[in-house]
Specification:
Layout (H helix, E strand, L loop, with lengths): L5 H19 L2 H16 L11 E2 L2 E2 L3 H13 L6 E4 L6 H10 L8 E5 L5 H9 L15 H5 L4 E5 L6 H13 L1 E2 L8 E2 L3 E6 L3 H7 L4 H7 L2 E4 L9 H17 L7 H9 L5 H15 L11 H4 L8
Parallel strand pairs: 3-8, 3-9, 4-5, 5-8
Antiparallel strand pairs: 1-2, 6-7
């Protein structure tokens, strides 16, 4: 019998639809879409109610960053390999974590490795693991990132710095879904989503032979191009508010940025992008005892007013 209360009828229909979606396995695919719709309803990007616009943990409402949101909306529910390109400090790891945390693998591990920060001799062990005694210092078996993140996501940062010899071994992982630990003659089957990032031109590297073209096409099934902060009109103000709150909590400080200081921050080109802006806010909070004005900003940012930083 149908209820005379329209609200109860609607709730009953929604519960029935959710039960059907859960039974068919569709709920896991619908969840990120529903979550995004709810976020969009709360944070509409324009933020006319004073809220800081945030989607997928990323701050900003400029047309350039909205294009990134739209692309993430499409690829988050899938398992395709993603290549994130952008200048240093644009937030490539933040995008990688969003792909994992809002995707179907979010209950599984997320492991990251900076390919430029590990020596070529150790990178293979870090990624694929090793057997005890396979080299000096290998005092016990070690699984490596791919085996440890099985079912989850492996993020390879600075992929352009990976040695060519390692590129061939990574290609095998992508093609066959298996790794062989250093010093072992047995392969381990793994199921991971690969997300890679670089600030280099991999296509140019393919042309000059420093990056394998077949690996490039395996990694760049979808490419996310992150815009530099200087091209994200209006986002500096949003990021300043966000960083003042988050860094302020971390440092136990509460302060405001004066309009004059904000104008200088918006005028600077930020060659180090969001990372440089965060460092600027952190420095200003550490040095100031009240509102942050032009005098609390670094000299290079203050000089932007005279055009020397343009």
């Amino acid at each position: 019998m149908t209820s005379t209360d329209p609200a109860k009828d609607l709730v009953a229909r929604l519960e029935a639809l959710l039960a059907e979606a859960r039974a068919s396995g569709m709920l896991s695919r619908l969840r990120p879409i529903l979550e995004s719709a709810l976020r969009d309803d709360v944070d509409d990007g324009a933020s006319t109610d004073g809220k800081i616009p945030i989607q997928y943990g990323i701050v900003g409402a400029s047309p350039q960053i909205r294009q990134v949101y739209a692309l993430l909306e499409k690829i988050i529910p899938s398992d395709v390999a993603v290549l994130i390109q952008g200048e240093t400090g644009t937030g490539k790891e933040l995008i990688a974590r969003a792909l994992h945390q809002y995707g179907t693998r979010k209950e599984k591990p997320f492991l990251a490795e900076n390919c430029a920060a590990v020596s070529p001799d150790l990178l293979e062990s870090e990624l694929f693991g090793h057997k005890k005694g396979s080299f000096t210092g290998a005092i016990a078996d070690r699984p490596g990132h791919f085996a440890s993140a099985n079912g989850g996501t492996v993020f390879l940062d600075e992929i352009g710095d990976m040695p060519v010899s390692m590129q061939a071994k990574l290609l095998r992982v992508l093609q066959e879904g298996e790794v062989r630990p250093v010093g072992s003659n047995k392969v381990i089957h793994v199921d991971v989503r690969i997300v890679a990032a670089t600030n280099k031109d991999l296509r140019a590297m393919c042309r000059n032979g420093t990056f394998r073209e077949d690996l490039y096409f395996r990694l760049a099934v979808v490419t996310v191009q992150l815009p530099p902060l200087r091209e994200r009109k209006g986002d500096v103000a949003h990021l300043v508010r966000f960083l003042m709150e988050s860094v302020g909590r971390e440092m136990g400080r509460s302060a405001v940025v004066t309009p004059e200081a904000l104008a200088l921050l918006e005028r600077w080109r930020w060659p180090g992008n969001v990372r440089e802006l965060e460092n600027e806010i952190r420095r200003a909070l550490a040095l100031s005892s009240g509102p942050i004005g032009p005098g609390e900003l670094s000299e290079v940012v203050r000089n932007a007013a005279r055009g020397s930083g343009a």
